[in-house]
Each structure stands twice: as C-alpha cells, then as structure tokens.
C-alpha cells in the first residue's frame, strides 16, 4: 500500500468531532393579517377570468358552469364529439366554467 493510500485511509477512519446538539428552530412569524389569504386568492388569472366573464355575461354564468360540469362528468374529448365542437372550444368552455366557479367561491357568490 502506498503512503498516499495510508494517509487517505487514516483521514477516512479518523475519529470525527461529535455533531453538536441543535435545538429545534423556532419560527416566530407574525400571524397573517385577517383577510390576507383571501386577498391573495384574487391575484390569480383564474379569478380574473371568472370576474371578467361574470361581469360581461351575467346571464350566461349558470350555463357555462353547467357546461363545464358536463365536460368534467363526460370527459373533454367525448363532450366535444357529442356537441360537434372543436376540442379547443370545449377546453375553453371548461376553463371558463372553472374560472367562474373559482371567482364565485372566492367572492362569496358575488356576480
């Protein structure tokens, strides 16, 4: 065994310093402001899409939610075939319905 190998082995098997006991880290964060979480939910694109659609087409809100539910239940591709529409259009309807439901849930049914 070469001298370099013996040195490497000694270093490898040398006693190591014990790992010190570390107290669990305590997080001292201030409690969030009331309503801060709900306010953060309104910063999403889904919320914005839902709000826009609800404001522009209040008479279609129930229809788009029902269509989105039908797409969820039946499946995107089968729904598009049954309704004889493009898959992309069915997807847009699904996303709009989800956005409107999200908006209504966050806004407390407003719209």
Task: Give the tags.
111 residues; mainly alpha; elongated
Describe the structure.
The protein is 65% helix and 0% strand. It is mainly alpha-helical. The mean pLDDT is 82. The chain is built from six helices and no strands.
Helix content: 55-70%
Number of DSSP E strands: 0
Instruction: State the low-pLDDT regions, or none.
Output: none
> Beta fraction of the residues?
under 5%
Largest sheet: none
- Output the radius of gyration: 29 Å
Q: List the helices and strands in order.
A: HHHHHH
3D shape: elongated
Terminal-residue CA separation: 82 Å
What's the rounded overall pLDDT mean?
Answer: 82
Query: Can you count the helices?
Result: 6
User: What structural class do you assign from the helix and strand content?
Assistant: mainly alpha
């Amino acid at each position: 065994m070469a001298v370099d190998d013996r040195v490497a082995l000694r270093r490898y098997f040398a006693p190591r310093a014990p790992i010190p006991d570390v107290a669990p880290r305590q997080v001292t964060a201030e409690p969030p402001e009331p309503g801060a979480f709900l306010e953060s939910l309104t910063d999403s694109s889904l919320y914005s899409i839902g709000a826009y659609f609800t404001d522009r087409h209040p008479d279609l809100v129930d229809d788009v939610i029902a269509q989105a539910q039908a797409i969820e239940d039946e499946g995107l591709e089968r729904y598009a075939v049954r309704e004889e529409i493009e898959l992309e259009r069915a997807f847009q309807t699904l996303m709009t319905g989800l956005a409107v439901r999200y908006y209504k849930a966050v806004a407390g049914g407003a719209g």
